[in-house]
Amino acid sequence: MEERRRGDGEGEGAELSKKEIPIGGGGGGGVGGLPDWLFASDGRVWLLCLIFRVVNALLVQDLLQPRRALASLRGRPPRRFWVMYGHLTWEWKEGIRSYLHPMVFVLLYKVLSFLHLDVPWFMIKAPRLLQSVFASFGDLFTYKLSYVLFNKHVAQWTLFSQLTCWFMFFCITRTLSNSLETVLTSISLFYWLSLACIVRPTSAITWLYLGIWEFVKADDRYKFLFLEVFPIGILVLVLSCMLDWLMYGSLVFVPLNFLKFNLLSSGGDYYGTHKWHWYFTQGFPAMLLTFLPFSLIGIIHSKKWRPSGLVAWVLGVHSILGHKEFRLEFQVCPAGASLALMFSGYFLAAVPGCAPRDHNRKISSFFIRFPSRKYFMLFLIATNVPMALYMSLVHQRGSEDVMNFLAYEARDGKVKSILFLTPCHATPYYSTLHEKVPMQFLDCSPTLEKGALDESDQFMRNPTAFMSDMVGNWSLPSHIVLFDSEESQLRDFLFSHSFSEVKRFFHAHFKVDRDLQASIAVYALTEEERQDI
After folding, report:
1. pLDDT tens-digit readout, 265-309
2. How far apart are CA 213 and CA 508, in angstroms?
3. What count of other Cβ atoms lies within 10 Å of the Cβ of residue 264?
4. Which residues span the membrane (predicted)?
5. Which of 210, 194, 196 is nearest to 309 (CA)?
């Protein structure tokens, strides 16, 4: 497969290099001041990406989707996951999640336990460090795919775009299934294998487009169907079903359940809807940010309609669904990185540069009018790096900080049980606190009953009334976690039940989808009361 892909791609790349961006035989030269020897082999490129992503993982201090982190790291049937505590999220009860992704981290936890490294710091950081290794391979194959489609010089600038894009920095090292899906899709596009479908069935949207395109263009359509599509598709489905059958304990066809819930019953709409054009007008532009105009110019000028059409196709299909999130468009980041950002790399490779070698190459008449490449580099770095650092280090970090604090407190035996009075899965729970500590939190599982309010909605509407009803039959916790937006209404209630503030963490400077949650507080029972639990 690789040879066929390389053969086709090199033909396109050679033609493009001659006609549109002739760069001295297809490339060479360092990028952004990096020495040429870093790009001398795939191994060196991968090592560069690995070092960058490890630092990336260590710098990410907040949570984008706590519920997804929980589903990946601790949402499982206990008797089947080798750990005897945790929370089973509703997705697993509905059978719409494959076990492949969580099993990766279960194995990691077992290794840490065997090495006696199952302490809070390693248990918290290790999953993201492992994901950083996966992400480095995604970066490498984005580079390789760009090399195949264009040439080495474009590939180098595609890698620059990949590593400096704020959204990639913000998301790719997280333990979301979408992150691994992104990596697998990048690899799959290079090798022509639909690996990502095992992790998330939504990847089938990408391969439906590519399959139809290849089928229409194929010289021997029967050979294409029966020697490529069916064997690969059947292999992926069989492996996925066997793993899920083993882990669920019964025959569960995850892709069908996923389709029924998200498309046929519109179950995802329970968590909110957006206009049909949201991905095109808000989601994708926000993800690319200042790379967007360069990507558009690259798409138009390169005339590579198949890969650019894939971006439009995936965004279009997802636009049919009412429920939309930034993390869902992360699934098209192979089309947003190896494709949309790849076209940004095409633009950066084509504009005039400052190095002596650039003066010896012929610049396209279209790109000759642009200023020197260094100004575009500085502009992209200045607009993406601060955004990446702020979103990763500052914005909404309280959810993770509070769990880190509780993890160390629980390790020291100071936490008996926790009640989370926060919106739906606002903290990562057991994916950060790896101790057998009972937790209570507000349920927000979807329901088919229209207009019905879940516990989270009821609490947010009237915190005082909700707690007055709850206190009659609750199991008194040793600690309560809540945001300052609700704390002001419950402070008297907390004091009257012998709770006092023990820690407060900054959370955000501005509101996102609800009232401003500037900080998150931890309240604990007095020592005397705690000993009576």
Report:
1. 766 666 666 788 888 888 888 889 999 999 999 999 998 888 888
2. 45
3. 9
4. 157-177, 189-212, 224-256, 276-300, 307-323, 335-355, 375-393
5. 210
